[in-house]
Amino acid sequence: MKNKISFTFLFTLLVVVGLLALHYLPPVKVNDKPLRKVDLLADLRPDIVEVADSDTVLLPPVVKPTFVDTCKTGITCIEDYSDSTMRGMTHFYEALTNRSTLNRPVRIAYFGDSFIEADILTGDLRAMLQNKFGGCGVGYVSVTSKIAGFRPTVLHSFDGWESHSVTDSTFFDDARQDLSNHYFIAGKGASVTLKGQRKYASRLDSCRISTFYFHTSDSLILSASINGGTPVSYHFSGAESMQAATVEGNIRNICWKVEKVDSVATFYGVTMDGEEGITLDNFSTRGSGGQQLGRIPMATLKAYNRLRTYDLIVLQYGLNVAFQEGKDYSYYKVPMAKVVNRLKEAFPEASILIVGIGDREYKDENGELRTMPGVKNLIRYQQALAAETHVAFWNLFQAMGGEGSMVEMVNSKPSMANYDYTHINFRGGKHIAGLLFEALMYGKEQHEKRKAYEAE
């Protein structure tokens, strides 16, 4: 039989060529409807994407990713719950950045209980901040103090005063108290002297400014003697609001004396400050939970904002609030929210930082030391307090090391805490001050990174 494979191949080739040629025919319409174009290679051809004219297409704006704060390993970072009013840490960080234009020191008011008494913790935090940002002096000191002999950051002496404290067992007039929850009435020739101390920190031995805060409704004569020199007198008329007497110089020690008072004037505190840099005022009240700050008259708070503007207010309480089986601390959180909001009103530009309670131990049924359960519950309420009032929070318990950290501080060599397993000593204060200082500096660094990112 004759082989016809070559004819079959030729016929197939003609059919393929014909189909390929049909692809190039002009469009054919039947009843005004175009017939589908023949394309034998349709499955092999890439899809054609029609590109519109870029001038006619409106593209959505590029959304810049939100800046995300980070927390470096090994640091317990400050948690900022501020809202649009920016009452977290922003103002304080901005004050540090712009401190050269403030024409005053950046000021911190550090409120707390016996945990910071005698300038424990605050003395070292002040020294760290002053070494980095400048400044000098111990800051605000009440006219008299029961623990003057135990405070190593200033030599404090006084004579001729009638002293009143919120912790007094007898009558205390809330309407006359200052930020430290004290007020003082001058007897004949009453005086108060502050002397800088070099041993504890290098920037405490001298200062540039000393101020005496008081209120008088009638005329008053004060004198100030700098470094044992000749006293200089200052005359004041009565006024409705608080007043301040200020002297300047190279002040190693300052003695203020009441030379003449024609009425029952009220006196508050004396300072040793720098002209710039950092000032940190310790306001410790033994046995306090912080609620007593809500009884300071608003007029007094606003007077301090006028005369001694603060850039950061720290509230560190809890030792006198926590109890072993404490679970519901609403009774504490509600009045403290009022305290925070009063401070926000009185100091409208100050950052506010709530420092949670640190570790505190108790003996369980087996006689073993363990973290008091009520402590961890209180921390959650303190954190909620910061969130609800839109301020900042620092978890001291976590920074110390959490569960059982107070035992470790007591047992360290040398010891950093007392055998009540509640209070730290000055070595412990220096350790915790370093942790807080590191958190503050890292927070400032993140703040500056955020500003730079948002400015791009």
TrEMBL record:
Keyword hit for Transport: no
Keyword Calcium: no
MF (Gene Ontology): hydrolase activity
Keywords noted in UniProt: Hydrolase
UniProt cross-references to CDD domains, sorted A to Z: SGNH_hydrolase_peri1 (cd01825)
Top-level lineage group: Bacteria
UniProt-recorded name of the protein: SGNH/GDSL hydrolase family protein
